[in-house]
């Protein structure tokens, strides 16, 4: 074999050897692309002709009246609870809402803006409420509403890890930012006059005027408009809870 051909053959064998070496190296030490799943963000109902009336920041003393008003119209509410709900009176309200058929869900522990927190602190905010609801009611919620409606990818990643959907809204009664009952009622009138297929409404149970004036007004108007007033879970066709069990007996772990 001429020297030139022997040299070419040597180069080709060397190249093949190098290629095989690189394949073996990458196979033993694969580069894994990290992918983060984001939680579903619910901004509106999906089932036609439904309205989901939601109530944040409880459980407060007006919860009983809110529930009675809803039941009078065959309506189901969704309560997003936050704070240390182990207090005996608050725990009683949480259980009452659940036993009356309303949906109970998480609004985090301290009502902090989750977009300002670390990964670990976001999980802590969510876990504390989930644990409390499991002790008090016996359920693990499948829905979470971030305080102020604020979320980022980190919040959505944490929610996905916890198998929760993030719930926002497409109508705000504005009771939390100083709207008078007349203004909130007018806002309900305006949205109902447009008769959208669905409404996902934000209210706050901590306001006496919401419980005793605005809600009864809205229920009457929504009922006459022919809407079915259901929970968030029902209006999007998803389970309300990841787990359903029995309430636990109060013990030393029921503390803030």
Automatic annotation (TrEMBL):
Keyword Cell membrane assigned to the entry: answer is yes
* UniProt keyword annotation of Membrane present: yes
Q: Which Pfam families match?
A: Polysacc_deac_1
Endpoints of the signal sequence: 1-28
A molecular function (GO) term: hydrolase activity, acting on carbon-nitrogen (but not peptide) bonds
Q: Which UniProt keywords apply?
A: Carbohydrate metabolism, Cell membrane, Cell wall biogenesis/degradation, Glycoprotein, GPI-anchor, Hydrolase, Lipoprotein, Membrane, Metal-binding, Signal
Q: Which cofactor does it need?
A: Co(2+)
Q: Which GO terms describe its biological process?
A: carbohydrate metabolic process; cell wall organization
Stretches assigned to the NodB homology domain: 49-230
Q: Which InterPro entries match?
A: Glyco_hydro/deAcase_b/a-brl, NODB_dom
| Superkingdom to which the source organism belongs | Eukaryota
- Listed name of the protein: Carbohydrate esterase family 4 protein
Q: How does this chain sit within the bilayer?
A: Lipid-anchor; GPI-anchor
Q: Where in the cell is it found?
A: Cell membrane
An example of a Gene Ontology cellular component annotation for this protein is: side of membrane
């Amino acid at each position: 074999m001429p020297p030139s051909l022997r040299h070419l053959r040597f180069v080709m064998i060397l190249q093949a050897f190098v290629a095989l070496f690189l394949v073996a190296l990458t196979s033993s030490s694969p580069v894994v692309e990290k992918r983060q799943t984001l939680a579903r963000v619910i901004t509106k109902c999906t089932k036609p002709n439904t309205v989901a009336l939601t109530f944040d920041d409880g459980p407060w003393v007006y919860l009983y009246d809110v529930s009675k008003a809803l039941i009078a119209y065959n309506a189901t509410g969704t309560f997003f609870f936050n704070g240390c709900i182990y207090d005996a009176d608050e725990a009683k309200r949480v259980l009452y809402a659940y036993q009356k058929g309303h949906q109970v869900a998480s609004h985090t522990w301290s009502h902090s803006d989750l977009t300002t927190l670390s990964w670990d602190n976001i999980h802590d905010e969510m876990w504390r409420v989930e644990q409390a609801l499991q002790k008090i009611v016996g359920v693990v919620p499948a829905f979470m509403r971030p305080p102020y409606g604020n979320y980022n990818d980190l919040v959505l990643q944490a929610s996905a890890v916890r198998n929760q959907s993030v719930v926002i809204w497409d109508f705000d009664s504005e009771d939390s930012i100083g709207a008078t009952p007349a203004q909130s009622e007018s806002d309900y009138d305006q949205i109902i006059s447009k008769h959208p297929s669905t409404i996902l409404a934000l209210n706050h149970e901590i306001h006496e005027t919401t419980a005793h004036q605005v809600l009864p007004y809205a229920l009457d108007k929504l009922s006459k408009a022919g809407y079915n007033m259901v929970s968030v879970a029902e209006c999007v066709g998803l389970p309300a809870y990841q787990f359903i069990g029995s309430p636990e007996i109060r013990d030393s772990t029921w503390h803030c």
